[in-house]
Amino acid sequence: RFRGAEPDVFRQLQAETPAEGRLPLATNFRSQPAVIDFVNTLFAPVFGEAYRPLRAARPQATPGPAVEFLWAPVAKGAKAEAKRRAEARSIARRLRTLIDSAAPIVAEPDDATSGGWAARPARPGDIAILFRALSDVQHYEEALRDEGIEYHLVGGRAFYSQQEVYDVANLLTAVASGCDEIALAGVLRSPFFSLHDETLLWVAKASGRVSTAGSLPGGLAAGFAMRHAPPELSGSEAAKLQFARQTLRRLRGQKGRSRVAELLIDAVRRTAYDAVLLSEFLGERKLANLNKLIDQARAFDAYRPGDLDGFVRQLTEFIAREPKEALAATRGREASEVRLMTVHGAKGLEFPVVVLADLDRTARPDTNPVAYSPAMGPLVRPTQGAEKSALGLEIHRAIEGEEEQRELDRLFYVGCTRAADYLMLSAAYTPPAPPAGPLMKTLAKYFDLAAGEPVGCVAGNSPARPVHVEPVDTKPGSSAATARGPSRHKLLEEAYATPAAPSLPREALPVAFDPAAVRRFSVSRLTGQLQHPTRRPEAQALQAALNPPSGAADRWDGDGWDGDGWNGDESGGGSSDGVDAQGLGSLVHAVLERMTNAGDDPLRAWCEALAPQHVRRNPGRAAEIALAMLRRFQASPRYAALKQAKHVRREVEFLLPWPPGAAGIDSDAGRGATADADGPMVQGYIDCLSEDASGELTVIDYKTNHVDAAAVPKEAEKYHLQMHVYAMAVQHATGRPPAHLCLHFLHPGVEVRLDWGKREHAQAVRLVDQAMAAVRAEAAGRHAAFFRGLYG
């Protein structure tokens, strides 16, 4: 249900299928009969007539019973965290006892017999602890660690909450910044350097003593920067402190010169941090997590090499908001460890021993004052007004509550049927108190929670037989109905008798649109136009591909995408060779990005290898056309000038605060501008930026338009604004205006140079302002159209 599944669709299809076309899947090849009997006894009355009792295909090879209730008594009024800690300790102790006692609760095929089964003791790798959610799984991890039971957390948000991740984050933060004393304390106390807390105290105090003379500020960072160790330290602690100083000094010296992964590897090598991790509990898992962090640093270096500050920001952000990231794999070790995972994650899997944990978890009440119902539309509880005006919301919550209960029943069934040989149902619960959570309430209907026996079974009946239960009284006015809230029948009667409200409440009115909130704009290399970077043109591309305009069957001339999406041929061009023009432009730019200006680049090999990645139609022909363009470019004066340039950078990404400063266009004015820090930003990519021996900067943009030489000046007019924005970006980043702006048309081999000065700057600012206003107006129009569709 949380993924949007609609079980009614399946049931409708099932009902429409003739009886002879239905095949009940009632034979269970996973579980022993003792587990199957429990499942049938519990879920036959839960699911009613639609339930088909399971039949076990395996014999019962282990002694019964195979289902165990494991309740952890808790004090009355205990908080949720205390309950889960108590339950976690109870599960860990029980698993420790099961493993140590060698009780034969797991069945496996007996090689000594033909098709027989033999019972054996449970091993950690046989056991899975399943949860509805992993939000509190840390309590269960801690309890398993205390009992010395190795475990593996499958999925969830566990990776960025591991201590080794904190250690690496503290190390890199301390290298990136000499002022972050929290990170410095963390890395000095970590296995990287293993300094005692008392050592940190004396180091901080030593700097305070010096600071009284006014030479240094007090604190840990200042004390760490001192040359000599405090006299209170022992010889071993003084040696460790000196080693930490030398190591961090070396690593700080590498900042900006080494890649992040190289810096981290050097730190691990010098400190033997990996060896220390291996000596700890779950050491192989911790070492695998460290290696995963190094791999993440390598991936980061691939597109932002050596940006230590950027990697630290990314890592600390991940630690703060804990995105979904699984723990690293450890070469098959998971097979010998207890697995912790969600019931959803266990669907389709099986385990010899299953522990269904946290069964008495309560559901959070729905207090959201707004909701959306496909049948009733937007639903709002006004901040003022009578209760009767919330009728729609009450009905919606009632329907949602029933659907949620059905979902929990299905989830409970999935969890129980993951067990092959032994099933444990666990909760923080003290019999005979009434249970609080919906799953325990379901279990209590059909089983005595204190004795474990089915409720309502006549002596001699099979426990697999469905148990008869009287239906719950939900008539209006009954205790069962009033306990859930106000009488909806009464609300409905009052609603019909009440005149319609003269106007919508404030909460139901359309959300106001702020045009200034549209702050990111992209300059397309392909059209020279400004566009909102969130407007990805996939839909336009798909529509054009499926329904090409008349006379344009071989190419699509839609807007290209700059930076993080489409990057194809320029609008208004075209190819007469039956080649995808968008893909051809993308291919040529990909090869140009790789060229070294050495004259011996393997252009043909690059074109042939990259063409299938960029060109949808006729990639072989596209490779030939691209090769001809690039060889023509190699013979051009522009290529000769690039070979003599002092510096050449390709695919230069920029982010330009808007508006840029107008001063200094004709001089070496300083960087920066008068831009508002919270104002709009213009982003884009410059194909090539070169600097010659005299220090002059040249901006080059390559165009693959299919035009002849005579048409180039007219075609170049489309890109004047684009080139002027590039010039402003270079001015902002370097403090120097570019000396030359060049549009190089590769097909005819013709180059156009544009003027750049105060007049062009002012005109470009005016045009970009107009384009931004148009983009914002279009966004406002889409916003208004959405609410028109919502409200009619």
Word description of this protein:
By secondary structure, this protein is α/β, with parallel strands linked by helices. 43% of the residues lie in helices and 13% in strands. It is built from 26 helices and 19 strands. Strands 13, 14, 15, 16, 17, 18 and 19 form a 7-stranded mixed sheet that branches. A 6-stranded parallel sheet has the order 3-12-9-6-8-7. β13 and β14 form a beta hairpin. The radius of gyration is 35 Å and the shape is globular.
Which range best describes the helical content: under 10%, 10-25%, 25-40%, 40-55%, 55-70% or over 70%?
40-55%
Treating each run of at least 4 consecutive H or I residues as one helix, how many helices?
A: 26
Instruction: Tell me what portion of residues adopts beta-strand conformation.
Output: 5-15%
| Rg over C-alpha atoms, rounded to the nearest angstrom | 35 Å
Give the overall form: globular
- Class per helix and strand makeup: alpha/beta
Which sheet architecture does the biggest sheet show? 7 strands, mixed
Distance between the termini: 29 Å
Look at the structure and give the mean pLDDT: 79
Which stretches are poorly predicted, pLDDT < 50 over at least 5 residues? 210-216, 458-485, 534-576, 662-675
Keywords, separated by commas or semicolons:
single chain, 792 residues, 6-stranded parallel β-sheet, alpha/beta, 7-stranded mixed β-sheet, globular
